[in-house]
Design brief:
Six copies of one chain form a homohexamer. By secondary structure, chain A is of the alpha/beta class. Helices cover about 35% and strands about 10% of the residues of chain A. In chain A, strands 2-1-3-4 form a four-stranded parallel beta sheet, sandwiched between helices. In chain A, strands 5-7 form a two-stranded antiparallel sheet. The interface between C and D is large, with 51 and 51 residues.
């Protein structure tokens, strides 16, 4: 691996055991992209969340000494679970997946881990964090960063985007238009998110009749590009700061 | 979806919720590819298992009314877990992942499910089957087929390939040479699998010093192609017979 | 129970089985207060969270046809777990407690449930919600509201209180000065919350050296009273709206 | 804390983290009161069990260097679960609560723990003990005493009280008359406990039609006082002997 | 099976599936003997508990329409776990074994079940009962009796036997002398059970230095026979009463 | 124990704690026989699997320094679970039983363990192995051999016995005729095993209408004897090789 002049990201599943053994682990960042298979309106594909997370990961991975793990393109879904095509994992499955992968990285000598998820459901995030928490308790060398790219992208709400923009809305539609334009249908739906605050209800999907939150009529690939640039830039800064590692 | 003239496989993450709702479910086959992130000798990439399963799935998917689920590129690994780079899931994680996905498919009205795994560890297979078993117990409309492509490919041992060929050996090397040639290193190792029969031991990897079973010196993409053709052909016949569905 | 002229809250543990049987269940709200046993700076007691939740519950309980369940004065604590005196429950214990109590209420014919927690850790909240979620999945008549009083109190940050006020800070100190003044020590510490964003770390308490977030020097019982009034008022409105029940 | 002249019990939730840190742990006894929310006849409140345990704890706590933990006012209920108002926890919830609290005490350097429960159901007791057992296995410095005050109070059956007195009977009614007289209804029911011996049945409550065991017609606060005196006295002796600590 | 003239017990593992199908299930009693593999003094074998339970079961089985299940010769052991040769199951294993067997009997149409255990540890008994409880909750036709033969044999303490007789003592020694005399060593140890009351401790075996409770010097097969006669007689009466079935 | 001239196997439940303590552990082999309670055709008893395993164990036990543990005469059954009389354990029960027993042996200083099961269902085998795997991970001195006697007996298929012989067939019938002839009914059924390959289905028993696989018309005790001789001989060689211990 020593003389290789790498440009793109290094994917864990594309290197050999020997390559892996030769990686310098102390400043290495392992990155796990996570998504969901979930309804995202009549215009966006079920894999919308994973596509965004994987795109962001592709862009940040080559800026650090890093290794990109195979994605988990499933997540724990509650709100949109009632819509056709959503295939949700249980809380426990997401948690134990997160625990297993992070623990196995530590067993392999990799202690800096970024879990980036395109799905930002609160249960899903809690499951990823709980898995990370348990791994950290067992191996105190670990430093794990768990976030959704929407923890960053939503900074732009109230600025370029509406305060009410959300699931399948203007931001998300613009991003998919940027990265997978052929998968976006021509319809540009508009919908609101009227789930009673703080309520745990049997059928939350009834309160989002269009299955989305926001007005997608002005979504564009250019906006999508700007959002991704913003997310990537901000995320790189956070990584440098949180892990104390520099860009390559 | 009605007027679409599809050629390649239909990937679940690329269609919308509405597309999904419009699929005719009664003869639809959902296909879940599963792999591992596991040492495969000094010449093959860690993602070897998933690559083979996904290749087979790509080829069979367009021959049936089917939908391809996002892959799980991890598995439960025991024998090769001690080698660098193996990231194993626990038995329970694989089991509950299998249960969740199959149950969610049934909840969505999809009852024919094929789980095809490129990793064939006995614990891993048992976990996938136990998850399927539990899903079937809860929804008796389900018909689930769980197998490794090696349940088929190993038919060729004792014929074109050595009886002792196995993990990372001639068959596996040939197949990766066929589908992802750039990922195969130039070395062509040879190794034997001397794990004491029936033993559960703390470090089974000690008994496979080269990390592979077989002689890879004569592996070739042509042989890989023939193996995959055989696997695809035989699997299509099994699918037709087991699910009672015809090719499109 | 019919001719009773009740003034204060009705506590479940103070009524008999027969009293309980005679309650009209359809508009009845069951309220579960939850707290924690957790470090809250050098000046506030370990039971700070429960005290606030129980105070709010006392005040709202008499405004609705309601029944107050015995409190759980423990919670899942991560950030402040490393400080002396924190006695944390596991995620699973909080989750199963939440599930059990809500399920048992449903078994008893009570379907409107408010879980109000004074501890607002994200894992703790996720555990309470997951327990509620599982109960709702099993009994679809249930409507459960799960929130922390800090989901409301923090509305006041950036207004009367600093944006950075948090754990053991000005708001929390003021509230305890209002409701349990004798338990507040004379020191008025000041501290900052410098936990790296999105990080799961072995010792987060190192990043909050004073064990609090905020400047408590201007805390006062009067401010505490105003906060509680605000929380109570806003919570009553939410209850009316979410459950469709009117004040008595 | 050193110059404090304490009279009443020291409640863990009323002291600060710093106070806690300064406690001398080697002879300190942590006391956890546990109850239930369970039918206790037409005359006694649902919280009867917790009230008794908390009263006993209040009385013994000031006689030893001790700290009283917040109570758990719920328990695992089987026999009376079928009556209105019983809110039972599962065996696992009680067990893991017991484990968590005791383990966290040990993590904080507190190794002498008394769990006193007013509810004495055999499953409930087993759950508390199993939680304690697991904690002890992980931290062998721990010494845990788990009992119900009825393990002591029933010494008085066959003496001042009937051999058949039990749940909601003469003893229990007298004790609540002593400590919470306003909560006892005027009716003085009489009932028998005819559950077939050793049987696990779907509806055990059918065999205790009055929901109690005993004749409450002669219950009195004076008798209640005598019972509590007896329990407190005997329990103090057991504590001294079992933990090797002296009264203050 | 109809014309069979059976004398001894009917063992489930000795009959065929067809025989089983032809059994009249409504008055049939299934009997599960349970024991332990546990230290019982220097004179008694590790399997002492199972031997007694199986002997009692052999004797009662032919008196009722019954079927004897294969024994579980293991149990959950705490007190004597620290002595050589004790092989304890976990609480959860015993519980789930009990649940599985009883549930499977119900699935087969057998609803009257007796679980008789020679090991009477409180955790072990609780595990058997909890398994039975969960099975009964899922199938309300079930009637399950769970007891130890020592729940009956200890009636004789304070009469023919010492009040302090217990584990490996006079009663137990006499019973094994009666049923498996060759397995009893010549030594007749004497020991006392000084485990501090109600304590959960890391090494309870330290408080029973001889590993037994009682004076075995006067144990005899004749006494053993009388105890077993008593247990069998009393158990038969309980069975008749609890299940409403008559002797054959 | 030192001067004992033992001939038959040493059963763990027949020796005392002191005997156990005095055993030389370093070359000692602990043997756990496992079976099932499962339909085996109209002619063979439900306990068929355990009988074979226990017979083999009896024969091999006296050839090594060994100790025979009490059998588990239950297993996890899937294929034949739908037939009358099958009493199946769950996967988790078998796994935790295996884990508990093996872990407890290691705690007692016994590190060589053979688990021999007469039931060879793939889930059942996986459960036994997973339990062993977890025990080995916790105690790396352990060496555990897990196999079914059918892993050996099926060597004889395609030779003396039909390739299609299986559950309840010629081999199994012959073996039971050899060891428990009175338990075999006179009928000699013939049946085929037509479960669709690799399928997980709700009612697999529908595909084996006679409940057996094979032609039992030529089964004989002599053949049974030869099979057992073969199994015993081969197993002894495997034990010597895998554990490095010599015959006594």
């Amino acid at each position: 691996m020593s003389v290789r002049s790498r440009r793109g990201p290094r994917f864990a599943d594309e290197i050999t055991s020997k390559d892996f053994a030769e990686l310098k682990k102390d400043k290495l960042l392992a990155i796990l992209p996570v998504g969901s298979l979930e309804e995202h309106g009549e215009h966006l594909p079920l894999g919308t969340d994973a596509m965004q997370a994987e795109e962001v990961v592709r862009r940040i991975a080559s800026r650090f000494e890093s290794i990109v793990l195979p994605p988990l393109r499933y997540g724990e879904c509650r709100t949109a679970r009632g819509f056709p095509g959503t295939v949700s994992l249980s809380f426990e499955t997401v948690q134990s997946f997160s625990f297993d992968v992070i623990s196995e990285l530590a067993r392999n000598g990799v202690f800096n881990v970024l879990v980036l998820t395109g799905h930002a459901g609160s249960g899903h995030m809690a499951a990823l964090r709980l898995g990370a928490q348990r791994a950290v308790e067992q191996n105190q060398k670990l430093k794990v960063m768990v976030l959704s790219d929407y923890d960053i992208a939503y900074d732009l709400r109230g600025k370029e985007f509406s305060e009410n923009d959300g699931h399948g809305g203007d931001i998300e539609t613009s991003r998919i238009l940027n990265i997978r334009p052929k998968l976006v249908k021509r319809s540009r739906p508009k919908g609101s998110w009227d789930i009673p605050e703080f309520m745990v209800l049997p059928h939350p999907e009834k309160y989002i009749p269009a299955g989305i939150a926001g007005d997608t009529s002005k979504a564009s690939p250019e906006k999508g590009k700007r959002i991704d640039d913003y997310v990537v830039d901000r995320l790189c800064k956070l990584i440098s700061k949180n892990f104390g590692i520099r860009r390559v």
